[in-house]
Amino acid sequence: MLQKKICMVGVYGTGKTCLVQRYVHSIFSARYLSTVGVKIDRKEIALDGQSVMLLLWDLEGRDDHHDVNTSYLRGAHGLIYVVDGTRRETYDQIFEIRDIVTAALGPIPSAVAINKTDLTAEWKLTPADEAAVETHGLHRVRTSAKTGEGVEAMFQWLARSAVGGNGAAQ
Amino acid sequence: MPDNQTTEFAELRQLLVGPEQRRLEALADRLDGMGITPAELADLLPEAIALRSRRDQQLGRALAPTVETALRESIRRNPREIATAIFPVLGPAIRKAIAETMASLVRSINSAVEHSLSPRGLKWRLESWRTGVSFPEIVIKHSLVYRVEQVFLIHAETGLLLCHVSASDLKLPDADLISGMLTAIQDFVRDSFRPAEGGTLRTFSVGDHTVHVEAGPAAVIAAVVRGEAPEGLLRRLQFALESIHLEFATALAEFSGDAAPFEPVRPVLADCLETVLAEPGTGSRKTWLTWALPLLLLVALGAGLAIRSSLRWRRAIAALDAEPGIVVIGGTRDWGRWQIHGLKDPVARDPEAVVRAAGVSVAFLGRWEPYLSLDSAVVVARARKAIGAPADLAMLLRRDTLVLLGTVPLNWLRSIRLADRVVGVGSVNVGELALTLPPDLDSLRRSVATTLVRFDPGSADLTGGASATVAGLAASVRSLVAGVTGAGAWVRIELVGRTDPSGSDLTNQDLAQRRIDRVAARFREAGIAEAVLVPRPVATGRPLASDDPAERARINRSVAVQVTVASRSIDGGKP
User: Fold this and answer.
1) CATH entry, A2-164, from 3.40.50.300, 3.30.420.40, 4.10.91.10, 3.30.360.10
2) Mutation target vs A (from B188, B194, B255, B262; most A CBs, 10 A cutoff)
3) pLDDT digits over B425-448, tens only?
4) Would you say residue B121 has pLDDT above 70?
5) What is the DSSP letter of B179?
6) The CATH number of the domain where B210 resides is what?
7) Which domain holds residue B214?
8) Residue B457: which CATH number?
9) How far apart are CA B324 and CA B250, in angstroms?
């Protein structure tokens, strides 16, 4: 079976782990994140009649003390940047993180999950901000780990791009 | 002209070397064409194949698809043909596989049996019951030297699983996640400790599991080992990793998530799986002991039971032997079934009761022939039964004489005497028996005893009243004597002659004798036998008492009759 390594990166507290948990049933506890800095889950999806196993590396969020650990990114076939729509700084840092990642990995299929869409009252991003993501060459998906909005579609898109092997939507 | 010359030259050449030219052209054609005819190819092909095969694998690779297609086509058309052809190859292979499976099964059964009954085995069973882990797993846990349970081949860069093998009894569906985490942990350790170039996490232990990691440039091999893995295993992992790098260099470099090309690695990894159990060597003696101990107890128990049974048997036989009227001739004792045979007097006690009385409660089959015992107790019992004697009548046998003691009614005497016909009884002694008279005789005896024949002073004449008294007495005494002697007893009639104190002793003695004689004469006349009559001329010797002196004198001028009844002859008595 085809396997693809997908990494989730983003600022601390943007909901990466919640997105993964929305998507898969985890066997490892979230404790791994704080001890080892990564937690790995798995999701088998069907893509055009072919089974693909996604191994989702949920990386510890970036904060003042920890930068993104590029060791864990090695060999990744796809990347998800997670932004918390209610915290503008998480959006701003995405581009810094992207520079770090690209330096380590080169161009790979990447999506930006603009998360927590269920919290509309606290929304801090303008439509222009969200659109700007695409001008940076990243695929944009609005997601909510709470309602499940966009989650399935995002992983599906990324799996397709990773299997396609192209650098689509860079 | 030149044209003409050319034509002529050609004609000339045609005439001179025409046939040769045609052959040259044919040769040129063949050289320009493929150059080899099928006939030539048939000659060259075997040699060519051999040559090429020696040089490299190209031919095999080129032919493989064709051969596969041909084979598939052939099987589709006629499967039986292929089946027959490969049977000699498949048969032994299948047999070998089955034999190996059976051998492994037998080994595991042996191991389980070896451990199941020893104290250690019982301890393990308890542990299995307590922890809910299956018994075979507990056995393996304790007798394991080491066991390689899983081997992972992991793509170094992505951490994706290339191949995974595990011991058949383990179920681990999350090999791909473990593969990822192993890689992450490797990265974590490397980032955290920043070891020198090429340094990696080689081993880590969790409980009784150790994970050995061999890292190569493109792939990592990780073995999960339970127990202490030998150095040889690590070398084997290294060797496997090296050969994988060599053979799959391209596949590793081009890997993009598809593990299918690494399927051929599986046997290489499977070779690393192994289980090494502790040698049972020294255990065999212990096993022998663990068998011997219960066996010894069992034997001891059996022996104890046998001894107990034997003792009971002997006690029972001794009791029967000691019992009067029973003679044990023989007996058998098989598996608790007792059979005893011998002789038994009809009046002897029930043999089972005898055995029970000896404190042995056992039911047995007795075969008894009747016989007559001369044992005194049996003779007495037989006599007692014959007489129908009451329990309070004591009997004993002195030599062959049956002696009876106690009191019996007079009319029993005859039947008691018949006891001398009982086997073992020579004679019967009833002399010690006291007799009770039947009521009619008893009242006669009492009336006789209270009647006095009175005389006038100094006289021995029977006056009118006295004569009548004597006549009545005589009738009574005659009836009494007849009744007692008729029953087989003896009787004594004492005639006690008395006088009053007047006169000399000599005359009084004479007077007493004469008075007795007169009464005796009348008794004889009445038909009473002389022999039963005993004269007792006491005169004034044993006077009858009275307060009145005149009355005293009167009652002592008399003859009294005393009757004694006995079961044996008495002085002066006669049956």
Assistant:
1) 3.40.50.300
2) B188
3) 888 888 888 888 888 889 988 998
4) yes
5) H
6) 3.30.450.70
7) 124-277
8) 3.30.1330.60
9) 111
